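Record type: ASSEMBLY
Status: queued
Input:
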Amino acid sequence: MVGKYFGNFAFDALHMQLQRHEDRLANDLRRKFRDAVLVFGDASIGMNKYHAPTPCLGLRDLLQRKGFEILLVDEHLTSSRCPLCKAPIRPFKFRKSPRPWQAANGHQRIVTGLLKCSSRECQAILGGRDRLWNRDLVATMNFLAILNAYRNGQGRPEYLSRRNV
Ligand SMILES: [Zn+2]
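Status: finished
Output:
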């Protein structure tokens, strides 16, 4: 009985702590962005080749419960097109595997968070150098492009559309 009582008590305390965290997150977001529309990439609509599935379903539901307006955007190509010139971008950098036994065997991993645009257009702007992108920034900028295009009544931009592979 003592164990059961303690178990419930521990659960209640944890639950209350979790709720406090949730309230604080919602309040912070509201203070910072007021009535912003929160845009989430929906991995279930389509999986991007270089985008690991993110467990943000819980966060999305939580923020919706807290009264935020949530918009889901199909992630297709949002991490693999340059937001400036619209050309394909891709990871290019390798690093040693973080697992020592694999590193010892010469195993390398591709760095998925860093992408390169080698289009002539971007190279011309940068004096012949490739443009490097942080993947999360790319996705966010492309989400914004999609959102703005929808708001202007143009629909999803062609270079991010599913007609493109
Ligand atoms: Zn580019």
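Annotation: The chain has two domains: 1-34, 35-56+69-160.
Annotation: The CA atoms of residues 61 and 70 lie 9 Å apart.
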